[in-house]
Every structure is written in C-alpha cells, then in structure tokens.
Amino acid sequence: MLTELLHATTRDELAARIDQTILTLDNKEFSTELRESVKHPFRCILTWPMNIQKVKEVWRNRVCTVANFPSGMLPLQALEKELSNSWDLGADEVDVAISPVLIKLDPTKYREYVKYVVSISRDIGFSTVKIIVETPLLSIEELKVVTHAVEASGADYLKTSTGIFSKSSLKDVYVVKSISPHVNVKASGGIKGALETLAYIDLGASIIGSSSGIKILEEFDQLKRIGSLK
C-alpha cells in the first residue's frame, strides 16, 4: 500500500531514486534549477551534453545525459559520435532514445539497433545505459517485443518516455514488469507528485526521472507531516 511505503521511506531514500532532470535551454533557468537541485541527495542530475561540465563544477554525485534525444532516429555513426562526446565531457551514464517508429516498421532492426547502442555505449565507457522506448506509443504486443529487446541487449534500464511525445502512466510500468519482472524500469515523463512517484515505485520502477524532483521531495515532506497527525 502507498501509505505503508510512505511511512517506510525516508526523504533521502526517495531522493536516491530520482534522476533530477534539468533540460531547460534557458541559461538563467538552468543556473537557478541547478543551484537548487544540488541541495538535495538525488540519484543523479540529468542534463544536456552541453551542460555536463557546468553540473560537474558544483555536483559531486553522478551526472547523466541524453543521446539520440528526443527523436531516437540518428544514424548509428552520428549517435556513436554523440555518445563519445558526452563521455569525454564527463557524463557517468546515458539515457538513449530509440524511435518507436522502428519497432513498428521492423522489429528485427529494432532489436539490432538497441543491441548496438548498448554495445557502443559500453565500449565508450558508460557503465549505466538506459534505453528510452516511449511506452505510451506502443501496443502491448509491441511493448512485449521492446521489453525483451532491451533485456536481451544488456541495458541497465528500460526508460518509459522522454516526456516530449508522450506521458508515462502507471499502466506502462505494470505492463513492462508483468512482461519481464527482471527488467529495471526508469519511469519518466510527466511525473510531478510524491504520491504518484511512490505509486510508480510500488509497481516496480527502480528509478523516477523528473524535472520536478524538488517539488516531489517537498510534497513528500508535507505528506510525512500529515501522516504524523493524530
């Protein structure tokens, strides 16, 4: 139950499950969000490759970036160059978008693409690779193929959504974990509240990706206080 999970989870434990996402293109907004984000023990901060070094100047934890984002349709040679550049800039892990169009056109090529993405990411140096699959845009049969493809590729996480083309739902995580309980899931795309975050975790999400990490923690604190009222 969510109530039990709320009471059993500490603030720091919840923060350690959140990839705080800062993908604004406005420099002033970026600086403000970064300044506030580093005050909290998030699992990592995720940002554009161009901002990796700015994050590393003030953040001593893991730095994550995105690749093939958001369309997921770069030729492999261009994607490899992008991944290599992000590694050289200091990223520790990467979230790579793969277009859902590919699974609809050719499942075999989708599997090969995902496998190659993970392979080149490992060769470059990334120890943690997440594959973004856009679960809300897939049928259950397509999601079954995608889930098994991500699992077979050796990727560390299946990430549900970029949040640009679609918003994740609790159903997405439920379906993925039903298809393969061993797949680690990063739920992302429109997650903004503490109870919603806990619900995703309760369904089996290992990580939550959100640009509202601070708001989630603040709401979590409020819920904790309300829960202590008698």
From TrEMBL:
Domain of life: Archaea
GO MF annotation terms: deoxyribose-phosphate aldolase activity
Keyword terms: Cytoplasm
Claim: Membrane is one of the keywords in the record: no
GO BP terms: carbohydrate catabolic process; deoxyribonucleotide catabolic process
Cross-referenced Gene3D superfamilies: Aldolase class I
GO cellular component, one term: cytoplasm
InterPro entries from the UniProt entry: Aldolase_TIM, DeoC, DeoC/FbaB/LacD_aldolase
UniProt cross-references to PANTHER family, sorted A to Z: DEOXYRIBOSE-PHOSPHATE ALDOLASE
Protein name stated in the entry: Uncharacterized protein
